[in-house]
Amino acid sequence: MIFNLLPRPPVIFGNGASYRTGMKVKELGCDKVLLVFDQGIKNAGIADKIHDNLSKAGIQVITFDGVVSDPSDDVVEEGAKLARENKVQGVIGLGGGSSLDAAKAINILLTNSSPVSQYYGINPPMNKVKPLVLIPTTAGTGSEMTTVSMVSDTEKNLKMNILSPNCLPTTAIVDPELTLRLPSQVTAETGIDTLSHAVESYLSNQSNYMTDLLNEQSIKLTFDNLPQAVKDENDLTARENMSFSSMIAGIAFSNSMVHLGHAIAHALGTAAKLSHGLGCALALPLTIEYLSQEVPERVKKIGDIMGLELDEGLSSEDLGQNVGDNIRYFIRDLGLPGTIVEAGLDEETLKQVAKLTAIDNSQIFAPKSASSQEVMELFGKP
User: Fold this and answer.
1) With the C-alpha atoms ordered 82, 84, 89, 91, is the resulting torsion angle positive or negative?
2) Measured between alpha carbons, how far is 242 from 236 in angstroms, rounded to an integer?
3) CA dihedral (270, 148, 276, 371) positive or negative
4) C-alpha angle 199/205/207, rounded to 5°?
5) How far, in Å, are 4, 26, 144, 208, 224 from residue 59 at the CA level?
6) Domain residue limits, the chain
């Protein structure tokens, strides 16, 4: 087996870790930074907390609070314009995956010309970037550990990605305390995103010894802790374990990648305007069922981690159905829909989802790619 292990950023992890933000940014040689976040982070008072911490360290802070869910190229360009005009020396992303992805793309445009669309794809040529610090406030996307930035292209009406080492932060600060009091819906959706990262990465044709260790641990941590985190927004132990689970799944899928499940989730976001977490909830069981015939031993291992008692004589198809159904039960118990029918999507929307899934290039990392017809069959449509 030959595989590459991508470099990982330094991480400050633990309850209260965000109090070290100003100190760390100062160590990076930044006296003026752009702080990127959304209105939810502003309203929760988290942005003010980080702003004050930076100010006390003698750092001038320029704020950009224009991030929206699935940030568009227009949002990125607006943030980059503000950063350039104020001649900031670095960028800080604070929030969920949308804010972190926006911060990555903005930081690229701080030292590279617009438009951001010219950097879509794998390892596009670009100039060296400024220091980037990422501080997640959800346990789900793992974006603080990845080389990927997702940007919604307004002209193509597609989610595009920038896959580059320049998307890795200079430092990641993971403070589980920042995830306290998240609404149960957000906790559930971001937690299923974590589970999707770990499962898809585990089933990937790029999986390796290291990613297997990380993914198996992330799957176990998520099954053991996500229900409690959803039930009790103030359970710090469950929040800490989910933050760690999200982080290690991010490390894993940066190396072995996600594929069919995220292709479906991204298509559901584009065609049906579903949130990423809901898209993952609908796609994950289908992904397991579709790939069980290709990697039955790995699907069985997932079932073992879940604590299922699976007969050794099960066919690969029955194995996939059993594990997939039990993941649906888990998802429903979190208050999320487990099937396409429960989500109430019409057939024309599903046809569009199937077409977008089939052309998603992330499917090259799956043991088997799915055509649009096969995706429709997964949806229960001929």
Assistant:
1) positive
2) 10
3) positive
4) 60
5) 38, 7, 22, 42, 40
6) 11-179, 184-379
Residues contacting residue 143 through CB under 8 Å, at least 6 positions apart: 97, 100, 101, 104, 134, 136, 149, 250
In this structure, what token pair is assigned to residue 199?
């499962």
| Rounded distance between C-alpha atoms, residue 114 and residue 325, angstroms | 46
From first CA to last CA, the distance across the chain in angstroms is 39
Count CB-CB contacts under 10 A for residue 142: 29
Residues 6+ apart with CB under 8 A from 70: 98, 150, 152, 159, 269, 276
User: Residue 134 forms beta bridges with which residues?
Assistant: 93, 172
What is the distance between the alpha carbons of residues 179 and 235, in angstroms, rounded to a whole number? 10
For β-strands 158-163 and 148-153, DSSP reports them as antiparallel
Give the pair of three-digit tokens for residue 272: 């049906």
- d(Cα 174, Cα 236) in Å, to the nearest integer? 13
- 73-85 helix and 97-111 helix, angle to the nearest 10 degrees: 50
Look at residues 217, 190, 214 and name the one whose alpha carbon lies nearest to residue 98: 190
Task: Please give the Cα distance from 292 to 289 (Å, whole number).
Answer: 5
Structurally, at CATH architecture level, domain 184-379 sits in Up-down Bundle (1.20)
Fold designation for 11-179 = Rossmann fold (3.40.50)
Q: Which residues pair with 12 in a beta bridge?
A: 173
296, 344, 341: which is closest to 323 by C-alpha? 296
**Residue-by-residue pLDDT tens, the chain, 382 positions:** 777 777 789 999 999 999 999 999 999 999 999 999 999 999 999 999 999 999 999 999 999 999 999 999 999 999 999 999 999 999 999 999 999 999 999 999 999 999 999 999 999 999 999 999 999 999 989 999 999 999 999 999 888 999 999 999 999 999 999 999 899 999 999 999 999 999 999 999 999 999 999 999 999 999 999 999 999 999 999 999 999 999 999 999 999 999 999 999 999 999 999 999 999 999 999 999 999 999 999 999 999 999 999 988 899 999 999 999 999 999 999 999 999 999 999 999 999 999 999 999 999 999 999 999 999 999 997 5
Q: Phi and psi for 342 in degrees, rounded to 5?
A: -65, -30
